[in-house]
């Protein structure tokens, strides 16, 4: 971080948007969430201590805004009922099929597992940072990511009922999950640059 709050905030917006997409699973809602989080951060910038973890502070604000939004709205679409096209990508047929399978598998995850997985795999956050940003213990953050990876690896390797400790959920499966997640994130970024 540069030490200039406004510059750091602007530079961090693309990563914040990826996390917002992981939470909302809807582009428009993600944009609104990022905007609200940025406004909250600007209003609370006096409470940020320079030299501390800006990234975790911003993720905490984003997550809190998301949770507040859920609490305020009584009639809300369930996060898992969001339209699958909200993360649409332009890719080859095989890539589209693989990404659709990944999207279905991601949709099966508990939201807290999906959130932790995206923070670690796509944002490159440490487990300590994830714990700090989500308000949980480091061991809990590790467990959420492990279970998410285990489930995704099992689904991507063709297991219909992934079970804990299943054969296909080892390192090979974890590498496949990370590769698919990163490819999906790159497609989302490309789509975002070119517009809807």
Keywords:
196 residues, Butyryl-CoA Dehydrogenase, subunit A, domain 3
* Beta-strand residue fraction: under 5%
Write down the overall mean pLDDT: 76
Number of domains: 1
What is the second-level CATH architecture?
Answer: Up-down Bundle
What's the total helix number? 8
Number of strands: 0
Task: Give the full name of the CATH homologous superfamily.
Answer: PhyR, sigma-like (SL) domain
Low-pLDDT stretches: 86-91, 163-172
Biggest sheet architecture: none
Shape field: globular
CATH class: Mainly Alpha
Alpha-carbon distance between the termini?
A: 30 Å
Kindly identify the CATH topology. Butyryl-CoA Dehydrogenase, subunit A, domain 3
Radius of gyration: 17 Å
**Run of helices and strands:** HHHHHHHH
Helical content stands at 55-70%
Category by helix and strand content: mainly alpha
Structure description:
With 196 residues, the chain is mostly helical. The chain has one domain (5-194): Butyryl-CoA Dehydrogenase, subunit A, domain 3 (Up-down Bundle), CATH 1.20.140. It has 8 helices and no strands. The chain has helices at residues 5-24, 27-43, 54-72, 93-108, 111-121, 127-134, 138-156, 171-194. The longest helix has 24 residues, at 171-194. The chain starts with a helix and ends with a helix.
Please outline what is shown here.
The protein has one domain: Up-down Bundle (Butyryl-CoA Dehydrogenase, subunit A, domain 3). It is built from eight helices and no strands. It has helices at residues 5-24, 27-43, 54-72, 93-108, 111-121, 127-134, 138-156, 171-194.
């Amino acid at each position: 971080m540069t030490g200039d709050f406004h510059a750091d905030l602007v530079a961090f917006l693309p990563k914040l948007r990826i996390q917002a997409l992981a939470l909302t699973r809807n582009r428009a809602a993600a944009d609104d969430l990022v905007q609200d989080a940025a406004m909250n951060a600007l209003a609370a910038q006096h409470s940020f201590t320079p030299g501390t973890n800006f990234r975790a502070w911003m993720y905490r604000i984003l997550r809190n805004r998301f949770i507040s939004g859920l609490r305020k709205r009584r009639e809300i679409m369930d996060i898992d009922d969001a339209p699958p096209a909200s993360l649409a990508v332009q890719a080859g047929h095989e890539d589209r099929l693989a990404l659709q399978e990944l999207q279905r598998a991601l949709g099966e995850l508990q939201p807290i597992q999906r959130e932790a997985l995206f923070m670690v795999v796509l944002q490159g956050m440490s487990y300590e940072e994830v714990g700090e940003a989500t308000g949980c213990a480091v061991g809990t953050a590790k467990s959420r990511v492990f279970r998410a990876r285990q489930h995704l690896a099992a689904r991507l390797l063709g297991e219909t009922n992934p079970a804990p400790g299943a054969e296909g959920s080892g390192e090979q499966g974890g590498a496949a999950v990370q590769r698919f997640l990163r490819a999906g994130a790159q497609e989302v970024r490309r789509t975002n640059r070119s517009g809807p």
